[in-house]
Amino acid sequence: MNKTVLVSGGAGFIGSHVTVELLAAGYDVVVADNFSNCDRTCFEGVKKITGREDLPLEVMDFCDEKQTRALFAKYPIDAVIHFAAYKAVGESVAQPLMYYRNNLQSFLNVLQAAQDQGGCNVLFSSSATVYGEPDKVPVTEETPRKSATSPYGNTKTMCEDILRDTVKASEGKVRGILLRYFNPIGAHPSALIGELPRGVPNNLVPFITQTAIGKRECLSIFGNDYPTPDGTCLRDYIDIVDLAKAHVFAVTRMMEGKMKKDCEVFNVGTGRPVSVLELVNAFEKVNGVKLNWKFAPRRPGDVTAIWADPTLANTEMGWKATRTVEETLKAAWAWEKHLAGK
Ligand code: WQD
Fold it and tell me: Does position 327 have pLDDT exceeding 90, yes or no?
Protein backbone atom coordinates (compact mmCIF):
# COMPACT_ATOMS: atom_id res chain seq x y z
CA MET A 1 0.00 0.00 0.00
CA ASN A 2 1.18 3.51 -0.80
CA LYS A 3 2.22 5.73 2.06
CA THR A 4 0.05 8.77 2.71
CA VAL A 5 1.39 12.29 3.04
CA LEU A 6 -0.74 15.11 4.41
CA VAL A 7 0.19 18.47 2.90
CA SER A 8 -1.15 21.32 5.03
CA GLY A 9 -1.40 24.48 2.97
CA GLY A 10 -1.23 22.19 -0.05
CA ALA A 11 -3.08 24.54 -2.39
CA GLY A 12 -0.50 27.33 -2.07
CA PHE A 13 2.61 28.12 -4.12
CA ILE A 14 5.05 25.68 -2.53
CA GLY A 15 2.40 23.16 -1.41
CA SER A 16 1.01 22.68 -4.91
CA HIS A 17 4.43 22.02 -6.43
CA VAL A 18 5.28 19.60 -3.62
CA THR A 19 1.99 17.75 -4.16
CA VAL A 20 2.86 17.23 -7.85
CA GLU A 21 6.27 15.78 -6.98
CA LEU A 22 4.91 13.54 -4.19
CA LEU A 23 2.29 12.07 -6.52
CA ALA A 24 4.96 11.52 -9.20
CA ALA A 25 7.03 9.64 -6.62
CA GLY A 26 4.12 7.31 -5.84
CA TYR A 27 2.84 8.74 -2.57
CA ASP A 28 -0.84 9.19 -1.79
CA VAL A 29 -1.44 12.82 -0.93
CA VAL A 30 -4.14 14.55 1.08
CA VAL A 31 -4.24 18.29 0.41
CA ALA A 32 -5.63 20.43 3.23
CA ASP A 33 -6.09 24.18 2.96
CA ASN A 34 -8.42 26.89 4.23
CA PHE A 35 -7.86 29.03 1.11
CA SER A 36 -7.16 32.07 3.28
CA ASN A 37 -4.33 33.20 1.02
CA CYS A 38 -4.92 31.38 -2.27
CA ASP A 39 -7.73 30.38 -4.58
CA ARG A 40 -8.42 27.09 -6.35
CA THR A 41 -6.21 27.84 -9.36
CA CYS A 42 -3.19 25.84 -8.21
CA PHE A 43 -5.23 22.95 -6.82
CA GLU A 44 -6.98 22.62 -10.19
CA GLY A 45 -3.58 22.94 -11.90
CA VAL A 46 -2.17 20.07 -9.82
CA LYS A 47 -5.07 17.83 -10.84
CA LYS A 48 -4.48 18.69 -14.50
CA ILE A 49 -0.71 18.09 -14.37
CA THR A 50 -1.03 14.78 -12.55
CA GLY A 51 -4.31 13.58 -14.10
CA ARG A 52 -5.53 12.93 -10.57
CA GLU A 53 -9.12 14.17 -10.60
CA ASP A 54 -9.64 12.17 -7.40
CA LEU A 55 -6.97 14.04 -5.40
CA PRO A 56 -8.41 14.44 -1.89
CA LEU A 57 -8.93 18.03 -0.75
CA GLU A 58 -9.95 18.94 2.78
CA VAL A 59 -11.05 22.55 3.22
CA MET A 60 -10.25 23.13 6.86
CA ASP A 61 -8.35 25.27 9.33
CA PHE A 62 -5.46 23.79 11.32
CA CYS A 63 -6.04 26.40 14.02
CA ASP A 64 -9.18 24.41 14.84
CA GLU A 65 -8.09 21.51 17.05
CA LYS A 66 -11.25 19.47 16.42
CA GLN A 67 -10.93 19.73 12.66
CA THR A 68 -7.27 18.76 12.85
CA ARG A 69 -8.01 15.70 14.98
CA ALA A 70 -10.83 14.68 12.64
CA LEU A 71 -8.47 14.87 9.67
CA PHE A 72 -5.91 12.60 11.33
CA ALA A 73 -8.72 10.18 12.24
CA LYS A 74 -10.01 10.10 8.66
CA TYR A 75 -6.73 9.26 6.86
CA PRO A 76 -3.82 6.92 7.67
CA ILE A 77 -1.22 9.72 7.77
CA ASP A 78 2.37 8.49 7.56
CA ALA A 79 3.90 11.92 7.15
CA VAL A 80 2.78 15.51 7.32
CA ILE A 81 4.39 18.43 5.51
CA HIS A 82 3.34 21.61 7.23
CA PHE A 83 3.06 24.72 5.05
CA ALA A 84 -0.15 26.25 6.40
CA ALA A 85 1.01 29.64 7.68
CA TYR A 86 0.94 33.35 7.02
CA LYS A 87 4.08 34.56 5.28
CA ALA A 88 4.12 38.30 4.64
CA VAL A 89 7.00 39.88 6.53
CA GLY A 90 5.62 43.45 6.54
CA GLU A 91 2.11 42.37 7.54
CA SER A 92 3.55 40.39 10.44
CA VAL A 93 5.22 43.55 11.78
CA ALA A 94 1.87 45.35 11.67
CA GLN A 95 -0.18 42.43 13.05
CA PRO A 96 2.10 40.32 15.25
CA LEU A 97 -0.65 38.64 17.29
CA MET A 98 -2.40 37.45 14.18
CA TYR A 99 0.88 35.87 13.02
CA TYR A 100 1.80 34.27 16.33
CA ARG A 101 -1.73 32.94 16.82
CA ASN A 102 -2.11 31.49 13.34
CA ASN A 103 1.38 30.14 12.71
CA LEU A 104 1.93 28.69 16.18
CA GLN A 105 -1.58 27.38 16.90
CA SER A 106 -1.86 25.51 13.61
CA PHE A 107 1.49 23.81 14.12
CA LEU A 108 0.73 22.93 17.74
CA ASN A 109 -2.49 21.26 16.62
CA VAL A 110 -0.71 19.28 13.91
CA LEU A 111 1.94 18.09 16.36
CA GLN A 112 -0.64 17.21 19.00
CA ALA A 113 -2.55 15.08 16.50
CA ALA A 114 0.69 13.50 15.24
CA GLN A 115 1.70 12.63 18.79
CA ASP A 116 -1.74 11.37 19.79
CA GLN A 117 -1.96 8.95 16.89
CA GLY A 118 1.15 7.31 18.28
CA GLY A 119 3.75 8.99 16.10
CA CYS A 120 4.35 10.47 12.67
CA ASN A 121 6.98 11.90 10.35
CA VAL A 122 6.78 15.70 10.37
CA LEU A 123 8.43 17.98 7.84
CA PHE A 124 8.37 21.65 8.73
CA SER A 125 8.83 24.39 6.13
CA SER A 126 11.33 26.71 7.74
CA SER A 127 13.26 29.57 6.22
CA ALA A 128 16.73 31.03 5.85
CA THR A 129 15.25 33.97 7.71
CA VAL A 130 16.23 32.10 10.91
CA TYR A 131 19.89 32.98 10.15
CA GLY A 132 19.15 36.74 10.24
CA GLU A 133 22.08 38.77 8.91
CA PRO A 134 24.79 36.08 9.00
CA ASP A 135 28.36 36.90 10.03
CA LYS A 136 29.69 34.55 7.37
CA VAL A 137 28.33 33.32 4.04
CA PRO A 138 27.47 30.81 2.75
CA VAL A 139 25.53 29.54 5.74
CA THR A 140 25.63 25.92 6.84
CA GLU A 141 23.11 24.26 9.16
CA GLU A 142 25.62 24.91 11.96
CA THR A 143 25.55 28.67 11.39
CA PRO A 144 23.99 30.13 14.54
CA ARG A 145 20.42 31.32 14.26
CA LYS A 146 19.90 34.98 15.04
CA SER A 147 16.89 36.79 16.36
CA ALA A 148 14.60 37.44 13.43
CA THR A 149 13.73 40.92 12.23
CA SER A 150 10.00 40.20 12.03
CA PRO A 151 7.26 38.30 13.87
CA TYR A 152 6.96 36.14 10.75
CA GLY A 153 10.61 35.15 11.13
CA ASN A 154 10.14 34.57 14.85
CA THR A 155 7.32 32.11 14.15
CA LYS A 156 9.72 30.07 12.00
CA THR A 157 12.35 29.97 14.77
CA MET A 158 9.72 29.11 17.38
CA CYS A 159 8.15 26.34 15.30
CA GLU A 160 11.62 24.84 14.74
CA ASP A 161 12.09 24.70 18.53
CA ILE A 162 8.60 23.34 19.14
CA LEU A 163 9.19 20.50 16.69
CA ARG A 164 12.63 19.73 18.14
CA ASP A 165 11.27 19.54 21.70
CA THR A 166 8.28 17.43 20.63
CA VAL A 167 10.54 14.96 18.81
CA LYS A 168 12.83 14.75 21.82
CA ALA A 169 10.00 14.00 24.24
CA SER A 170 8.38 11.41 21.95
CA GLU A 171 11.31 8.97 22.16
CA GLY A 172 11.47 8.28 18.46
CA LYS A 173 7.75 8.19 17.72
CA VAL A 174 7.61 11.65 16.20
CA ARG A 175 10.46 12.32 13.78
CA GLY A 176 11.12 15.72 12.27
CA ILE A 177 12.95 17.38 9.42
CA LEU A 178 13.34 21.13 9.21
CA LEU A 179 13.89 22.37 5.68
CA ARG A 180 15.27 25.90 5.58
CA TYR A 181 14.34 27.43 2.24
CA PHE A 182 16.28 30.21 0.64
CA ASN A 183 14.39 32.18 -2.03
CA PRO A 184 11.96 29.93 -3.93
CA ILE A 185 11.07 31.32 -7.36
CA GLY A 186 9.68 30.19 -10.71
CA ALA A 187 6.80 27.95 -11.67
CA HIS A 188 6.04 24.47 -12.95
CA PRO A 189 7.24 23.99 -16.56
CA SER A 190 3.62 23.27 -17.59
CA ALA A 191 2.74 26.86 -16.54
CA LEU A 192 -0.36 25.40 -14.88
CA ILE A 193 0.75 26.24 -11.34
CA GLY A 194 2.90 29.05 -9.93
CA GLU A 195 3.00 31.96 -7.50
CA LEU A 196 -0.25 33.93 -7.15
CA PRO A 197 0.36 36.82 -4.78
CA ARG A 198 -2.65 38.79 -3.60
CA GLY A 199 -2.36 42.54 -4.11
CA VAL A 200 1.05 44.12 -4.58
CA PRO A 201 3.75 41.43 -4.47
CA ASN A 202 6.32 41.65 -1.67
CA ASN A 203 8.77 39.32 -3.35
CA LEU A 204 11.10 40.18 -6.18
CA VAL A 205 10.21 37.75 -8.97
CA PRO A 206 6.42 38.20 -8.93
CA PHE A 207 7.07 41.95 -8.96
CA ILE A 208 9.36 41.53 -11.97
CA THR A 209 6.87 39.40 -13.94
CA GLN A 210 3.94 41.68 -13.09
CA THR A 211 5.93 44.71 -14.24
CA ALA A 212 6.92 42.97 -17.46
CA ILE A 213 3.29 42.06 -18.23
CA GLY A 214 2.17 45.64 -17.53
CA LYS A 215 0.33 45.12 -14.22
CA ARG A 216 2.90 47.30 -12.39
CA GLU A 217 4.51 50.40 -13.73
CA CYS A 218 8.05 50.07 -12.48
CA LEU A 219 10.16 47.73 -10.36
CA SER A 220 12.04 49.42 -7.52
CA ILE A 221 15.39 47.84 -6.77
CA PHE A 222 15.77 48.39 -3.06
CA GLY A 223 19.28 49.72 -2.42
CA ASN A 224 22.33 49.98 -4.68
CA ASP A 225 24.84 50.90 -1.99
CA TYR A 226 25.23 47.53 -0.28
CA PRO A 227 28.78 46.20 0.20
CA THR A 228 28.35 43.68 -2.67
CA PRO A 229 30.00 43.58 -6.13
CA ASP A 230 27.21 45.60 -7.85
CA GLY A 231 25.76 47.26 -4.74
CA THR A 232 22.51 45.24 -4.71
CA CYS A 233 21.61 42.43 -2.29
CA LEU A 234 22.71 38.84 -2.83
CA ARG A 235 20.29 35.92 -2.44
CA ASP A 236 20.10 32.22 -3.21
CA TYR A 237 17.19 31.89 -5.66
CA ILE A 238 16.03 28.31 -5.89
CA ASP A 239 13.73 26.88 -8.53
CA ILE A 240 10.35 25.86 -7.09
CA VAL A 241 10.46 22.42 -8.73
CA ASP A 242 13.95 21.75 -7.34
CA LEU A 243 12.68 22.87 -3.94
CA ALA A 244 9.60 20.63 -4.24
CA LYS A 245 11.79 17.62 -5.05
CA ALA A 246 13.79 18.22 -1.85
CA HIS A 247 10.57 17.45 0.07
CA VAL A 248 10.25 14.07 -1.63
CA PHE A 249 13.84 13.22 -0.67
CA ALA A 250 13.18 14.32 2.92
CA VAL A 251 9.89 12.42 3.26
CA THR A 252 11.42 9.26 1.80
CA ARG A 253 14.37 9.59 4.17
CA MET A 254 11.98 9.68 7.11
CA MET A 255 9.78 6.84 5.81
CA GLU A 256 12.75 4.58 5.06
CA GLY A 257 14.34 5.12 8.46
CA LYS A 258 17.47 6.70 7.00
CA MET A 259 17.65 9.60 9.43
CA LYS A 260 20.82 9.97 11.50
CA LYS A 261 18.94 11.81 14.25
CA ASP A 262 15.24 12.02 15.08
CA CYS A 263 15.25 15.71 14.19
CA GLU A 264 17.35 16.87 11.26
CA VAL A 265 17.92 20.22 9.57
CA PHE A 266 18.75 20.86 5.91
CA ASN A 267 19.39 24.03 3.95
CA VAL A 268 17.50 23.96 0.69
CA GLY A 269 19.38 26.26 -1.63
CA THR A 270 21.65 26.21 -4.65
CA GLY A 271 24.86 27.58 -3.14
CA ARG A 272 24.86 30.25 -5.87
CA PRO A 273 24.64 33.92 -4.88
CA VAL A 274 22.79 36.13 -7.38
CA SER A 275 22.32 39.89 -7.04
CA VAL A 276 19.03 41.69 -7.63
CA LEU A 277 20.54 43.41 -10.66
CA GLU A 278 21.86 40.13 -12.07
CA LEU A 279 18.42 38.59 -11.71
CA VAL A 280 16.74 41.51 -13.45
CA ASN A 281 19.28 41.41 -16.31
CA ALA A 282 18.91 37.64 -16.66
CA PHE A 283 15.11 37.98 -16.81
CA GLU A 284 15.31 40.55 -19.61
CA LYS A 285 17.84 38.55 -21.59
CA VAL A 286 16.30 35.09 -21.38
CA ASN A 287 12.76 36.29 -22.06
CA GLY A 288 13.60 39.02 -24.56
CA VAL A 289 11.61 41.65 -22.69
CA LYS A 290 12.55 45.11 -21.46
CA LEU A 291 11.81 45.78 -17.83
CA ASN A 292 11.05 49.22 -16.43
CA TRP A 293 13.07 49.53 -13.24
CA LYS A 294 14.74 52.14 -11.04
CA PHE A 295 16.95 52.22 -7.98
CA ALA A 296 15.11 53.06 -4.76
CA PRO A 297 16.16 53.36 -1.09
CA ARG A 298 16.96 50.23 0.90
CA ARG A 299 13.99 48.26 2.25
CA PRO A 300 14.07 48.11 6.07
CA GLY A 301 14.90 44.67 7.42
CA ASP A 302 16.68 43.38 4.29
CA VAL A 303 19.93 41.52 4.88
CA THR A 304 22.87 42.32 2.61
CA ALA A 305 23.83 38.84 1.51
CA ILE A 306 22.73 35.32 2.27
CA TRP A 307 23.14 32.10 0.38
CA ALA A 308 23.25 28.44 1.29
CA ASP A 309 25.98 25.92 1.66
CA PRO A 310 23.79 23.00 0.47
CA THR A 311 26.47 20.32 1.01
CA LEU A 312 24.54 18.51 3.72
CA ALA A 313 21.36 18.15 1.62
CA ASN A 314 23.51 17.10 -1.37
CA THR A 315 25.46 14.43 0.46
CA GLU A 316 23.01 13.23 3.12
CA MET A 317 19.70 13.42 1.29
CA GLY A 318 21.15 12.94 -2.19
CA TRP A 319 19.22 16.00 -3.39
CA LYS A 320 20.71 18.76 -5.51
CA ALA A 321 19.26 21.82 -7.23
CA THR A 322 19.63 21.34 -10.98
CA ARG A 323 17.93 24.24 -12.73
CA THR A 324 19.69 27.36 -13.94
CA VAL A 325 18.44 30.83 -13.04
CA GLU A 326 17.62 31.30 -16.74
CA GLU A 327 15.39 28.19 -16.89
CA THR A 328 13.63 29.30 -13.74
CA LEU A 329 13.02 32.85 -14.98
CA LYS A 330 11.64 31.46 -18.23
CA ALA A 331 9.15 29.36 -16.27
CA ALA A 332 8.17 32.35 -14.11
CA TRP A 333 7.47 34.40 -17.23
CA ALA A 334 5.50 31.58 -18.89
CA TRP A 335 3.30 31.40 -15.78
CA GLU A 336 2.66 35.17 -15.74
CA LYS A 337 1.71 35.00 -19.42
CA HIS A 338 -0.55 32.01 -18.75
CA LEU A 339 -2.33 34.05 -16.06
CA ALA A 340 -2.77 36.91 -18.50
CA GLY A 341 -4.21 34.49 -21.07
CA LYS A 342 -1.33 35.18 -23.46
C1 WQD B 1 14.76 39.55 -2.57
C2 WQD B 1 15.66 40.74 -2.91
C3 WQD B 1 14.96 42.81 -1.91
C4 WQD B 1 11.22 43.27 -4.10
C5 WQD B 1 11.61 37.01 1.93
C6 WQD B 1 11.38 36.56 3.34
C7 WQD B 1 11.80 35.13 3.48
C8 WQD B 1 11.08 34.24 2.51
C9 WQD B 1 11.18 34.77 1.11
C10 WQD B 1 8.64 34.12 2.48
C11 WQD B 1 15.93 41.66 -1.72
C12 WQD B 1 14.87 42.87 -3.41
C13 WQD B 1 12.43 42.78 -3.62
C14 WQD B 1 11.23 44.45 -4.89
C15 WQD B 1 13.61 44.56 -4.69
N16 WQD B 1 9.78 33.99 2.98
N17 WQD B 1 13.60 43.41 -3.91
N18 WQD B 1 12.43 45.04 -5.17
O19 WQD B 1 13.46 39.43 1.40
O20 WQD B 1 15.11 37.71 0.53
O21 WQD B 1 13.01 36.98 1.61
O22 WQD B 1 10.88 36.16 1.04
O23 WQD B 1 7.66 33.70 2.30
O24 WQD B 1 11.57 34.72 4.77
O25 WQD B 1 12.11 37.37 4.20
O26 WQD B 1 12.91 37.99 -0.63
O27 WQD B 1 11.92 38.39 -2.84
O28 WQD B 1 11.31 39.93 -0.94
O29 WQD B 1 13.60 40.04 -1.91
O30 WQD B 1 14.66 45.15 -4.98
O31 WQD B 1 10.18 44.96 -5.33
O32 WQD B 1 14.96 41.55 -3.86
O33 WQD B 1 15.42 44.03 -1.40
O34 WQD B 1 17.24 42.10 -1.84
P35 WQD B 1 13.71 38.12 0.78
P36 WQD B 1 12.34 39.09 -1.60
Answer: yes
Q: What residues does each domain of the chain span? A: 4-185+237-268, 204-235+271-339
Q: Class for domain 204-235+271-339, per CATH? A: alpha beta
**Chain-centroid distance, C-alpha 341:** 26
| CB of 27 sitting under 6 A from ligand 1 | no
Counting beta carbons within 10 angstroms of the beta carbon of residue 269, is it exposed (0 to 12), middle (13 to 18) or buried (19 or more)? buried
Q: Is any atom of ligand 1 closer than 6 Å to the C-beta of 91? A: no
Task: Identify which of 299, 304, 307 to mutate to test ligand 1's pocket (most ligand atoms within 8 A of the CB).
Answer: 299
CB count in 10 Å sphere of residue 2: 11
Cα dihedral: 334, 237, 31, 3 (round 10): 120
Q: In angstroms, rounded to a whole number, what is the distance separating the alpha carbons of residues 297 and 304?
A: 13
Q: Please list the residues that pair with 263 across neighbouring strands.
A: 176
Helix (H) or strand (E) holding 125: strand 120-127
152 is catalytic: yes
Taking the alpha carbons of 82, 157, 150, 238 in that order, is the dihedral positive or negative? negative
Helix axes 151-169, 96-116, angle to 10 degrees: 20
Question: Hey, which CATH number is domain 4-185+237-268, 3.30.230.10, 3.40.50.10190, 3.40.50.720, 3.30.420.270?
Answer: 3.40.50.720
Q: DSSP class of residue 37?
A: S
Q: What average pLDDT does the segment 307-320 reach?
A: 98
Per-residue burial over 118-152, b = 16 or more CB atoms within 10 Å of its CB, e = otherwise: eebbbbbbbbbbbbbebeebbbebebebbebbbbb
pLDDT of residue 1: 87
- pLDDT tens across 214-263, in order? 999 999 999 999 999 999 999 999 999 999 999 999 999 999 999 999 99
What is the whole-number distance in angstroms between the Cα of residue 175 and the centre of ligand 1?
Answer: 31
pTM of the model: 0.98
- Phi and psi at 299, nearest 5°, equal -90, 125
